[in-house]
């Protein structure tokens, strides 16, 4: 059964040194409405976009998890995300004044304690769930990650990890089930680590400027951290599971599955969560397991548009005022086809933009429904057209709120046909009196 979404009752603040940058960083964790998800905001950037913790915002990095939106980037988010995953905190605004979260003690424990001290509370809306029905495998060289259906009757996330370490380091497999108490005791305290032979190369490449013997274990070599100084038995393997949990938090839903990792790291973790997110979106498109759907009458109630200029047929999913997914079924009878390349009908790009703007208006208008204001398109930026839309296609429109206040709103929008992105843009709106 789906559970209720959760956020914080109070805010929490932390400060520390970035593991890689070595710079002082301040972070403020704030409550967020249902459906927001985990969202990062760079307070040191003027008018920088919000960065949702979702696979579409991943930036390529093998050593850490980095999220990016336009000029805004935030790295080493995996320890905080693991704490959110382990304690079931779903909606959170993370304000940070630098490009990297602080490393703290190298584990997820300080983050978990901060979340607990800010008092975790339930919200009314249910949390989405993805139950793995068919096996999914990602591989790279000698490493692999498997996502398997859970045992019959099981509804939890179970992780088994098979590591590979230098000689003399305990490399026995380890298995855990994601439960809050087990996470706090067995996973959250596990610190990050580095192989002894990699230390010099990483430092020369500009990494690890904030690392020390208190927050980072060294495996192998003359400077190796003795096992007697480890916090937990098999601490490095527990940290590998911690990183995996943090990366799986990017799914934006609870996961019911058995995960097997074999010598895997961030790159494979991120490839897996992208594939899982694609499955979740496929279920959304099919309308499976989602009650928050809006038919054409609901759409017309909130939008002033009418045929032939209403370009959203239904809204299949809404997360609060943060995200919406809509559908436009493109038929050969569309009124624009006879005049737009009639020998090879193609949906005009400007109408794809209009469809994205209408769904954005639907999402924002829900918040303004009883205020006497209307949502009006004010600006379009970063427009990209990446493919054609033809008769018979189903246009899937996704919009994410980047900024929203009483007078302005900004939305990241995408239009897709299947998994193929055909158009994207950043849309800005003004809230005007009706």
Short description:
The chain folds into two domains: 4-286, lpxc deacetylase, domain 1 (Ribosomal Protein S5, domain 2), CATH 3.30.230.20; 296-433, Hotdog Thioesterase (Thiol Ester Dehydrase, Chain A, Roll).
Walk me through this protein's architecture.
With 434 residues, this protein is an alpha+beta fold. The protein folds into two domains: 4-286, lpxc deacetylase, domain 1 (Ribosomal Protein S5, domain 2); 296-433, Thiol Ester Dehydrase, Chain A. The protein is 22% helix and 35% strand. It has helices spanning 78-87, 109-117, 180-187, 199-204, 235-248, 266-286, 296-302, 349-368; strands at residues 4-8, 12-17, 24-31, 38-42, 51-52, 58-59, 66-69, 72-75, 92-96, 120-126, 129-131, 136-140, 143-148, 157-162, 174-177, 192-195, 216-219, 254-262, 314-319, 323-329, 373-385, 394-404, 408-417, 420-433. Helix 5 (235-248) runs parallel beside helix 6 (266-286). The two termini are 42 Å apart. The model has no long low-confidence stretch (mean pLDDT 90).
Fraction of residues in helix:
10-25%
- Named at the architecture level, the CATH assignment of the largest domain is 2-Layer Sandwich
Main beta sheet: 6 strands, mixed
The end-to-end distance, rounded to whole angstroms, is 42 Å
Count of helical regions: 8
CATH topology heading of the largest domain? Ribosomal Protein S5, domain 2
What would CATH call the homologous superfamily of the largest domain? lpxc deacetylase, domain 1
So what's the oligomer here? single chain
What structural class do helix, strand and pairing data support? alpha+beta
Domain count: 2
* Mean pLDDT value: 90
Question: Can you tell me the residue ranges where pLDDT is under 50 for at least 5 consecutive residues?
Answer: none
Name of the CATH class of the largest domain: Alpha Beta
Principal-axis shape = globular
> How many whole angstroms does the radius of gyration measure?
23 Å
How many β-strand stretches? 24
């Amino acid at each position: 059964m789906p559970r209720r979404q959760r956020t914080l009752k109070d805010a929490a603040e932390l400060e520390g040194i970035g593991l890689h940058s070595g710079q002082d960083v301040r972070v403020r964790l704030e409550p967020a409405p249902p459906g927001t998800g985990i969202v990062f905001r760079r307070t040191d950037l003027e008018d920088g976009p919000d960065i949702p913790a979702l696979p579409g915002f991943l930036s390529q990095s093998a050593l850490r998890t980095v999220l990016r939106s336009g000029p805004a980037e935030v790295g080493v988010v995996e320890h905080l995300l693991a704490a959110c995953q382990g304690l079931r905190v779903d909606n959170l605004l993370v304000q940070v004044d630098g490009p990297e979260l602080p490393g703290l003690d190298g584990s997820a424990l300080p983050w978990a304690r901060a979340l607990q001290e800010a008092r975790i509370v339930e919200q009314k809306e249910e949390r989405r769930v993805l139950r793995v029905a068919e096996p999914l495998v990602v591989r790279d060289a000698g490493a692999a990650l498997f996502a398997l259906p859970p045992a019959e009757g099981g509804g939890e996330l179970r992780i088994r990890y098979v590591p590979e370490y230098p000689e003399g380091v305990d490399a026995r497999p380890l298995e855990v089930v994601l439960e809050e108490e087990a996470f706090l005791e067995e996973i959250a305290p596990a610190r990050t680590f580095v192989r002894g032979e990699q230390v010099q190369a990483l430092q020369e490449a500009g990494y690890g400027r904030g690392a020390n013997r208190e927050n980072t274990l060294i495996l192998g070599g003359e400077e190796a951290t003795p096992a007697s100084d480890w916090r937990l038995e098999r601490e490095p393997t527990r940290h590998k599971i911690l990183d995996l949990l943090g990366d799986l938090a990017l799914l934006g839903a609870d996961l019911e599955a058995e995960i097997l990792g074999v010598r895997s790291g961030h790159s494979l973790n991120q490839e897996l969560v992208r594939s899982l997110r694609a499955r979740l979106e496929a279920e959304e498109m099919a309308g499976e397991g989602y009650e928050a759907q809006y038919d054409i009458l609901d759409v017309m109630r909130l939008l002033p548009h009418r045929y032939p200029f209403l370009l959203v047929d239904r809204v299949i999913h809404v997360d609060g005022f943060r995200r919406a997914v809509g559908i436009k079924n493109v038929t050969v009878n569309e009124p624009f086809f006879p005049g737009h390349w009639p020998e090879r009908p193609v949906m005009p790009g400007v109408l794809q933009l209009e469809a994205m703007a209408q769904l954005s208006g639907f999402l924002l208008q829900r918040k303004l429904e009883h205020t006497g204001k209307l949502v009006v398109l004010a600006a379009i930026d970063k427009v990209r057209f990446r493919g054609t839309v033809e008769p018979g296609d189903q246009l899937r429109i996704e919009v994410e709120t980047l900024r929203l206040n009483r007078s302005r709103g900004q939305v990241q929008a995408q239009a897709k046909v299947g998994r193929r992105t055909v158009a994207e843009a950043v849309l800005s709106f003004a809230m005007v009196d009706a």
